[in-house]
Specification:
The chain is an all-alpha fold. It contains three helices and no strands.
């Protein structure tokens, strides 16, 4: 291989690498655009973490003093969840 062939091959490889970098950057931009909603939600949840911890402590103390209240709401929640699953299965999927 001559020096000229080596230089041409090197130039082609560098151009290919540059194109791959551009493609990767475009894919990254698309990925961030698609996941921005979830990132925003996650940051909101993380920001509310201390309130969730305090609320769960209060709920635990409340449930110790009023166990029937917790059981009643657990049954309601399970009933709603079961109803939602049944409705989703009954509806046609597109």
């Amino acid at each position: 291989m001559s020096r000229r062939d080596i230089e041409r091959r090197k130039q082609r490889l560098l151009e290919e690498i540059q194109q791959q970098r551009l493609d990767l950057k475009a894919s990254e931009r698309d990925w961030y655009r698609l996941t921005s909603r979830y990132d925003s939600l996650w940051h909101t949840v993380i920001g509310l973490r201390r309130y969730i911890v305090v609320g769960s402590g209060i709920a635990a103390a409340w449930s110790l003093r009023h166990p029937k209240f917790l059981v009643r709401w657990a049954k309601r929640g399970f009933g709603l969840w079961s109803s939602w699953r049944m409705i989703r299965k009954a509806l046609p999927r597109h």
